[in-house]
Amino acid sequence: MEQELAQVYREAIALTDKQAEAIAQEDWELLGALLMKRDRLISRAEALIHEGVLPDERQEVRTLLTQLRVKDQVNQTAVTRKYEATKVEIQSLQQSNSAVTGYLDNLRGVAESHFIDHDQ
């Protein structure tokens, strides 16, 4: 039973690796599903700990938890970068939309001028 805790963390690490792949592929639905699976594993690990299932030699568990934390940080950084890139793309689309609206209004002879702020 003591090895069960280490096995749960190994499985969580494997899911975290799969999460990294989903992030790289921008497969957000898969990422969500993997996060839910991993949350269940982490809940299982917490339950084992509350049941008093801790190995006498805790170094393996510490090592696994450290690996998990590092992989989580890498994934979080990757998601943040994707988010920031997406924000830039959305801003660019909004600027283009404003420009097109202004041009169309000008062609239609709309009396109001639309100012386009290219620095938004």
What does this structure look like?
There is one protein chain. With 120 residues, the protein is an all-alpha fold. It has a domain at 2-80. Helices cover 80% and strands 0% of the residues. It is built from three helices and no strands. Helix 1 runs antiparallel to helix 2 (28-50) and helix 1 (2-24) packs parallel to helix 3 (59-108). It is rod-shaped, with a radius of gyration of 24 Å. The termini are far apart. The mean pLDDT is 86.
**Element order, helices and strands?**
HHH
Portion in strands: under 5%
The percent of residues in helical segments reads over 70%
Mean pLDDT figure: 86
**How many helices in DSSP terms?**
3
